Amino acid sequence: KSANPQWREQFDFHYFSDRKDMLDIEVWRKDNKKHEELLGTCHVDITALPAKQTNCLELPLEKHPGSLLMLIAVAPCTGVSISDLCVCPLGDPNERQQIFQRYCIKNSFRDMKDIGFLQVKVLKAVDLMAADFSGKSDPFCVLELGNDMLQTHTVYKNLNPEWNKVFTFPIKDIHDVLEVTVFDEDGDKPPDFLGKVAIPLLSV
């Protein structure tokens, strides 16, 4: 019930400088669970923004009244990675020792924002639900921690997919919950939900 909403939400996207992607933003109005209406769109050319600083942008909505006020910062990304199981980032004993020293008790107050990081090995799924008429699914796995989101590749026509991927997330809040969701890829349509598990970091 507001024409001047304030969301004050922060989202982190993993952007690679060799790509020339546009940030696409849509504003929607929701009357109830069934009815939604698009209120406008706008686009931001990430490559045109100065790096290592926070850019305050007022973006007019295309073909609709109103504008969005946003803060966008392009900064080096640390701590986030995706790798194969055979080249696991913590497989090197020397690297493990460096990490142990970095987060030992005597270094706890060097950087209060550097809480730690979480490494997740996504190996496989077993006996998934068949979402296609063929009796198979095209599953992929999405991992979400706070506003960070990473995903595996899709394994086609398989109810027992093996991904064997390693994901590393920086931890910003020790009370966050790791959410792991499996979807069935469905072409141009939204993916079908196959299952989900939630793991509080405090339980690890």
Automatic annotation (TrEMBL):
GO molecular-function terms, A-Z: calcium ion binding
Gene Ontology biological process terms, A to Z: regulation of neurotransmitter secretion
Cellular component, GO annotation: synaptic vesicle membrane
Gene3D superfamilies associated with the record: C2 domain
InterPro entries: C2_dom, C2_domain_sf
Record's keyword terms, sorted: Calcium, Membrane, Metal-binding, Repeat, Transmembrane, Transmembrane helix
SUPFAM superfamilies recorded: C2 domain (Calcium/lipid-binding domain, CaLB)
Primary location group: membrane
Localization annotation: Membrane
Transmembrane segments: none
Domain C2: 1-59, 93-204
Coiled coil start-end: none
Pfam families registered for this protein in UniProt: C2 (PF00168)
Membrane-topology descriptor: Multi-pass membrane protein
Recorded family membership: Belongs to the MCTP family.
Name of the protein in question: MCTP2 protein
Protein source organism: Loxia curvirostra (Red crossbill)
This protein's encoding gene: Mctp2
